[in-house]
Amino acid sequence: MNILIIGSGGREYSIGLALKRDKNVGKLYFAPGNGATDMLGENVALSDFSDLADFAEAHSVVLTIVGPEAPLVEGIVDYFRERELTIFGPTAAAAQLEGSKIFMKNFLARHNVPTARYIETDSLDAAVAFISTLEAPIVVKADGLCGGKGVIIAQSHDEAKVAAADMLAGSSFGDAGTSIVVEEFLDGYELSVFAICDGKDYVVLPAAQDHKRLLNEDQGPNTGGMGAYAPTPLVTNEIYAKLDERVIRPTLKGMEEEGHPFTGVLFIGVMVVNGEPVILEYNVRFGDPECEELMPLLKSPASELFLKAATGNLADAKIAFYDKYAVGVVMASKDYPYKNSLPAEIVIDKIHHTDLEGESHISYAGVSREADGKLYATGGRVLVCVGLGDSIREARDRAYMLVGQVHFVGKQCRTDIAYQALRDS
Ligand code: AMP
Ligand code: GLY
């Protein structure tokens, strides 16, 4: 079967890699893809929904998989379904779980899913009154999609009030901030849990842990994510069971009851506070870089998972994962996340260790192929070095051994990915 993947990041590259291993998959297309996805399939420079649907029809595409949230929130799934094309992802209405923090918080409250105490408001007086009832730090969030930057963790009441005032005045995040959520700060450890959903049934993937800050020991500014690993031993069977019962089931049931059955990836941002999972947020797509570690752990054919989810047939799917660990280390360009860097040629040493050849790989993200045929680092997060192993330590060592073989001017990465799991082991 031919498959079209929408997106251009490391996430989409890793989905492509998983599909490439799958004998049921014929041609792979990426729209628009990046400078390296052309090693896995064909890049097509289309973004308009009708052009993409025309392309899918003309090239016998059996399944389209959507990576990023923006086209989902804009209704690509609704449009493809109208054209009777099979597509993996939520409808625009279901994508509100990510597209609007207010929708999400109110949904969680309606269905008794545990989340931080909050108010949503467009009134500064109401925000200030609620802020006074909380202890610092205090979290202030803009509604809408802000590329992950719409969250301020204020260290004092005054800072929280200023953040709320700025967001409501539209000075910090434009229209995305005309309504805000103010909530209590949750103190615990953060997890990324992914459920692949078909509207009714779901498959939970091994839980991952991302590293959002730029620098070691979780210092420096927030980024899209500097590395991740899975499965994390920080999730016990008890926490999985609580997530299942208190979070995933009520969410799928609630979405169905409200007329928006959820298909696609439900990405649950969890904070574990004193052993109890509390929901920070939902996203409606794979996390990046979490996807880059989860895809190599998938033992079942990737096409089966995505196609069965897209067509409401997960109930009879038996999805298996390798009994292994994956660690992914993001290599970013020099000035990430502050500004763009100049393109830099990527040079990869010849790999002589058989161990490394079989148990590690690169997922490419911010790269372009120039006229000289070489790959250049052009984006913020350039690539992810992924190592696999029978333990987190082994997977981590392989990932970092691969990091040592990859060169480009200005490269930067964290050197402590998976530290929380290794510290506790
Ligand atoms: P969000 O955009 O809602 O995912 O928030 C981005 C990041 O801010 C999260 O991944 C957390 O690290 C942090 N964060 C958000 N809400 C809270 C909260 N209530 N308590 C503590 N940290 C939070
Ligand atoms: N890694 C977090 C995200 O994709 O939002």
Indicate the topology.
Blueprint: E1 2-7, H1 10-20, E2 28-32, E3 42-43, H2 49-58, E4 61-66, H3 69-73, H4 76-82, E5 87-88, H5 96-99, H6 101-110, E6 118-121, H7 124-133, E7 138-142, E8 151-154, H8 157-168, E9 180-184, E10 189-198, E11 202-204, E12 209-210, E13 213-215, E14 219-222, E15 227-230, H9 237-257, E16 263-273, E17 276-283, H10 290-297, H11 302-310, E18 325-332, E19 344-345, E20 347-348, H12 354-359, E21 360-364, E22 367-369, E23 375-377, E24 381-389, H13 392-403, E25 406-407, H14 419-424
Parallel strand pairs: 1-2, 1-4, 2-3, 4-5
Antiparallel strand pairs: 6-9, 7-8, 7-9, 10-11, 10-16, 12-15, 13-14, 15-18, 16-17, 18-24, 19-23, 20-25, 21-24, 22-23
Bound molecules: adenosine monophosphate and glycine.
Glycine (GLY) is lined by residues 148, 210, 225, 283, 287-288, 290.
CATH superfamily of the largest domain: ATP-grasp fold, B domain
Oligomer: single chain
What is the typical, i.e. mean, pLDDT?
94
Q: What is the count of helical runs?
A: 14
CATH topology assignment of the largest domain: D-amino Acid Aminotransferase, Chain A, domain 1
How far apart are the termini? 43 Å
Hey, roughly how much beta strand do the residues contain?
25-35%
Report strand order across the widest sheet: 3-2-1-4-5
| Largest pleated sheet | 5 strands, parallel
Radius of gyration: 21 Å
Give me the CATH architecture of the largest domain, please: 2-Layer Sandwich
Overview of this protein structure:
The strands form seven sheets. A five-stranded parallel sheet has the order 3-2-1-4-5, sandwiched between helices. It has a five-stranded antiparallel sheet with strand order 12-15-18-24-21. A hairpin with an 8-residue loop joins strand 7 and strand 8. The protein is α+β, with helices and mostly antiparallel strands. The longest helix has 21 residues. It is globular and about 60 Å long. The chain folds into four domains: 90 residues, Rossmann fold, CATH 3.40.50; 56 residues, 2-Layer Sandwich (Dna Ligase, domain 1); 128 residues, D-amino Acid Aminotransferase, Chain A, domain 1, CATH 3.30.470; 98 residues, Alpha-Beta Complex (Glycinamide Ribonucleotide Synthetase, Chain A, domain 4), CATH 3.90.600.10. Helix 1 packs parallel to helix 10. The mean pLDDT is 94. It binds adenosine monophosphate (AMP) and glycine. The site of glycine has 7 residues, from loops.
